[in-house]
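2.7 Reproducibility. Because tokenized structures are sensitive to small changes in the input, we list the exact sequence used for Methionine-gamma-lyase, including any N-terminal residues retained from the expression construct. No trimming or masking was applied before prediction.
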Amino acid sequence: MKNFDPADKIQDLQYFGEFGGVNPSISDSSTYTFLSAKTMFDTFEGNMEGCYLYSRHSSPSNLYLDKALAAMEGTESANVSASGMGAITPTILQLCGSGDHVVSSRTIYGGTYAFLKNFAPRLGIKTTFIDITKLDIVEAAITPATKVLYCETVSNPLLEVADIEGLSKIAKRHNLTLVVDNTFSPLSVSPAKLGADIVIHSLTKYINGSSDTVGGVTCASQEFIDNLKNVNSGASMLLGPTMDSMRSASVMKNLRTLHIRMKQHSYNANYLAERFENDGLKTVYPGLKSHPSHKIYKTMINPEYGFGGMMTLDVGTLAKANALMELMQSKNLGYLAVSLGFYKTLFSAPGTSTSSEIPMEEQIEMGLTDGLIRFSIGLDNNIERTYQMMKSCMIELQIL
Ligand code: PLP
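Resulting structure tokens (single pass, no recycling of outputs):
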């Protein structure tokens, strides 16, 4: 990781448009013509590099974004998709069939949790959910049927950190594929460099950064991406969660500023987390020394991009959390909205929103309390001013 700067890898790519434009041309076609029928046949068979057949398979615009994201994650290849879930579900279905087993972190995005818990069993795929921070528990959950070890680098919403190097050793020992969702920590962490086999992002969040689209990507070996896109057996090709070329072109333009945005998100979140913890609020942020995985996370990150823009505060009760979020929104400090990675601060109470798919008793077991607010800290220029305004909301509601 030390010699790998993911932002430099993106910067080093150079694409020109059809007429020498500084941005690549957008491929506005669903299908492509061939001068010879033989070339069409070979393309169908997957033997013709540089030829396009049909845009559900791939398009020039999607391939530009695939290349940039593979470069960013240091993998051989990548495949963009219409949403983060459109990357996660085909990846798991490509790796697992009936009778197979997944060991997954229990603190993951609610949609992924619901897929593994409620949907995948319909296809004969079972999942054991465990505390990903305890490597002995992870290893003990592995059975002869286990194929995949699944986690998020920094988990949603509890901000638990997965020790990717430790998990990778376990995965190798048991011949499993380690799949890591890196949505919360692009650039900060490069999971493939730490031993992950497959890295996934919801592009909807930091990477696109403007809350105007959903999107996703799977970054992996060329062999795995070819399998995902195989016309006869590829889960992405056959389930069809394809990103539109117009969108991939616009995500590509936003990707260019990701390094600047991540630094500011991290700076602002770190600033607020330190102050609110000092004020006596129960604050969770991986950059705080009090975070249980602070030490290990420090060794995992590319320090330039910091500890990320996500922070949680526990204000005691759901009623207080709701009142605080409504007051902060009325003062234009941010929006009461799910999702993350926007220029504006976004906040929500995960127990009643993004993690509501997780049953109440399981929420309690994993430490997801009622009064927890998840913050995606924005790009505010004057964060001290933001802190003072947030603090006065808390004082007004007798939270501080
Ligand atoms: N992974 C994480 C960590 C998420 O937070 C989300 C969405 O909130 C997803 C995946 C799913 O992504 P999408 O909403 O783009 O399908």
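The first helix runs from residue 6 to 11.
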